[in-house]
Automatic annotation (TrEMBL):
Protein name (Swiss-Prot/TrEMBL): RecBCD enzyme subunit RecD
Family: Belongs to the RecD family.
Domain AAA+ ATPase: 196-366
Enzyme class, spelled out: isomerase
Role of this protein: A helicase/nuclease that prepares dsDNA breaks (DSB) for recombinational DNA repair. Binds to DSBs and unwinds DNA via a highly rapid and processive ATP-dependent bidirectional helicase activity. Unwinds dsDNA until it encounters a Chi (crossover hotspot instigator) sequence from the 3' direction. Cuts ssDNA a few nucleotides 3' to the Chi site. The properties and activities of the enzyme are changed at Chi. The Chi-altered holoenzyme produces a long 3'-ssDNA overhang and facilitates RecA-binding to the ssDNA for homologous DNA recombination and repair.
Catalytic activity, as annotated: ATP + H2O = ADP + phosphate + H(+)
InterPro entries: AAA+_ATPase, Coronavir_polyprotein_1ab, P-loop_NTPase, RecD, RecD_N, RecD_N_sf, UvrD-like_helicase_C
SUPFAM superfamilies: P-loop containing nucleoside triphosphate hydrolases (SSF52540)
Length: 662
């Protein structure tokens, strides 16, 4: 009886949810989630609608839903058409008027734990004016508490004055040059700040020297470790294998160069040789098949003293919570990343939240005095302020060493949201560095794939011609050297898409590029696994050791005539898997901007779709542009989509920022 009554009040809503799901506007998961919550207690249409919206927002990376957004902003966040929103509201019958009414309704629901009330482990959590899935609420609390404790914790153990003198000695040695722009040397400041506590956050755009700085920070940490120097355990990690390999390579070469500089005083080369390979966060934490739990956690922490994590913008909330739980209180955590890049695909915008004050600085007098003593640098008064504890341990690098020229200017204009300047840079002469195809046709993308463009020739022919020239006759090392050359040539060019579906999405472009390369005589497709097929792994596979986002090239197996293997670059090494063993892969001539994070290509092409779907934002365009090392080409079938994207910032609902600032 109760069930029938319960369901009948929600019949119209469920019918509407089903319609929206069938039309592809809702994830099937969202409807199932709402029904599941409904099965746990009294169903009310407004609660069920809130569940559907919360689940949709989670799918877009939001860790919670602000009740204030239920008056309409949610529809914009989801990129919904006005009529979908209108129909959903109408089918719910009454829609709570305001935040207070929503709070009252949710707090009275037996499926919701209103923080402060008795906790029955309900699946939904109402914290102030935000509604959460319980695990995200828990993760936000954990991350906030752990980073605050680190930032507020012990600074400068031992005899502080002698420690500071030692830091000053080493910083002067490691940063013997003057800052180029005449302003403070933020790289030196970043090292001083990071070495004083258990948390250091270094953010900055591409080429601002994050890795350059962290190599010096590492030397400084060794130098300040005193008698513990020889046993200092340092681990390097990043969200993807590729980013981890890049981090390791850059740190190794920077330490090599520094070794000459520091001389006998610090056996840097020897200390660095004990560091081991950089790992993905999954591998560092000990991911296990078929479970979200890691081998390392609060009860079995990582055995490291210093953990350096690159590309931190890609770390999602759940991963950051797991990482912080697994890191002991005595260990130093250094996060590197570009706060303005796209946030993780999964929920959370952790680096963005942590770096909220990074641009302004917001340094307390205590921080300013410490930096002056430890580095001799007087941070200008405009960066003084009253920001929270995390900001005191955060430094933004502001001068790009590598990323000057038109691409750098374009990235800055987009990052500022300056549409006029963006169009101006795109239209200005750039000696071939930049090209803007507007309005673009899919044929332009195909042409770029086959031969590049004027000023940036090649496209995918770079590696396909090498492939055509053939493998060396010998197997073994000679074959692997050839594979490495091919992978490096493939990595020179890439087409990035803002979306997955449609003619301008990866699903549309990949098959047409394949066909075009074939008709140009650059590819010989004979079946699914043909020589030269680039693939991206779409799901972690522990059996074959390949992970979501890994990119490999399909090539003949030299040991087995007729068989194909997929070769993945692994730092300096190459590993391979028999092609037929790879189950979750897709062709990767075109890939999404999201998946391109942590990679750079000599020539990057960014293709925007014809229609704005409301979710394209500035961070996506900025991330796409900053994947280009030498040449950038923008394809816009409709210029307005670019302008709309630049005008829109990704605002992910999260309570983390507020928790960090308390
Ligand atoms: N202070 C400096 N003096 C001289 N060269 C520098 C300095 N800082 C950075 N560089 C050089 O600038 C280039 C870019 O630096 P680096 O790779 O560290 O930047 P990054 O911020 O880590 O870039 P990415 O965003 O690609 O990770 C490197 O070649 C590096 O050696």
């Amino acid at each position: 009886m109760r069930n029938t009554m319960r369901s009948s009040s929600c019949l119209a809503l469920y019918a509407q949810i089903d319609l929206l799901t069938e039309a592809g506007h809702l994830r099937r998961l969202s409807a199932a989630f709402a029904r599941f919550i409904g099965s746990l207690g009294m169903e009310s249409p407004a609660l069920m609608a809130a569940c559907v919206l919360l689940s949709e927002l989670e799918g877009r990376g939001h860790s919670c839903m602000k009740l204030a957004d239920l008056s309409g902003a949610v529809a914009t966040q989801l990129g919904w058409q006005p009529e979908w929103w209108r129909d959903l509201r109408a089918s719910a019958g009454g829609w709570p008027q305001d935040v207070a009414a929503w709070r009252k309704l949710l707090a009275a629901s037996e499926q919701v734990w209103a923080v402060g009330d008795l906790d029955f482990d309900q699946p939904l959590v109402l914290d102030g004016e935000r509604l959460y899935l319980r695990r995200y609420w828990r993760d936000e609390k954990l991350v906030a508490q752990a980073v605050r404790e680190r930032a507020l914790g012990e600074v400068m153990a031992g005899d502080a004055s002698s420690s500071i003198a030692n830091i000053r000695h080493w910083l002067d040695k490691l940063f013997s040059h003057a800052s180029r722009g005449g302003g403070p040397d933020w790289q030196k400041v970043a090292c001083a700040v990071a070495v004083r506590g258990k948390l250091g956050i270094i953010t900055g755009g591409p080429g601002t020297g994050k890795t350059y700085t962290v190599a010096r920070l590492l030397a400084l940490l060794f130098a300040s470790a005193g008698s513990r120097r020889d046993s200092l355990r340092v681990a390097l990690a990043a969200p993807t294998g590729k980013a981890a390999a890049r981090l390791k390579q850059s740190i190794d070469s920077a330490l090599e160069e520094l070794d000459g500089k520091v001389g006998q005083e610090l056996p840097l080369r020897e200390l660095a040789s004990r560091m081991g390979a950089a790992r993905t966060l999954h591998s560092l934490l000990g991911a296990r098949p078929d479970t979200r739990a890691f081998r390392h956690h609060a009860g079995k922490q990582l055995e490291v003293d210093v953990l350096i994590v690159d590309e931190a913008s890609m770390i999602h909330l759940e991963m950051m919570a797991a990482l912080l739980a697994a890191l002991s209180a005595h260990a130093t955590l250094i996060l590197l990343g570009d706060k303005d890049q796209l946030a993780s695909v999964e929920a959370g915008a952790v680096l963005g939240d942590l770096c909220f004050d990074a641009e302004a600085g917001g340094y307390h007098a205590e921080t300013l005095n410490y930096v002056l003593d430890a580095s001799g640098i007087s941070i200008p008064a405009e960066y003084a302020g009253k920001a929270g504890p995390i900001a005191q341990q955060t430094v933004m690098l502001r001068e790009s060493r590598r990323f000057g020229g038109p691409i750098g200017v374009l990235a800055l204009a987009v990052n500022r949201g300056d549409a006029a300047a963006t169009v101006q840079v795109l239209r200005a002469p750039s000696e071939g560095r930049l090209a803007w195809m507007d309005p673009a046709l899919p044929a332009d993308a195909l042409q770029l794939a086959v031969m590049g463009r004027e000023g940036a020739p090649g496209g995918y022919s770079h590696y396909l011609q090498l492939l055509k020239a053939g493998a060396p006759a010998e197997q073994g090392e000679a074959y692997l050297a050839w594979v490495k050359t091919l992978i490096a040539a493939f990595e020179r060019f890439r087409i990035l898409c803002a979306v997955r579906d449609g003619e301008w999405g990866v699903h549309g472009l990949n098959p047409t590029i394949e066909q075009r390369l074939q008709s140009a005589g650059l590819l010989r497709r004979n079946g699914e696994w043909y020589a030269g097929r680039p693939v991206m792994v779409t799901r972690n596979d522990y059996a074959t050791g390949v992970f979501n986002g890994d990119i490999g090239l399909t090539l003949p197996d030299p040991a087995r005539p007729g068989a194909m293997r997929v070769y993945f670059s692994d730092g300096d090494a190459v590993r391979s898997v028999l092609a037929t063993r790879l189950r979750n892969v897709e062709t990767a001539f075109a890939m999404t901007v999201h998946k391109s994070q942590g990679s750079e290509f000599e020539h990057t092409v960014l293709a925007l779709p014809r229609e704005s779907n409301g979710t394209l934002a500035r961070e996506l365009v900025y991330t796409g542009i900053t994947r280009a090392r030498e040449f950038f080409t923008l394809l816009t079938p409709n210029q307005q989509v670019l302008l709309d994207a630049i005008a829109q910032r990704t605002q992910r609902a999260s309570g983390l920022r507020a928790l960090l600032q308390d």
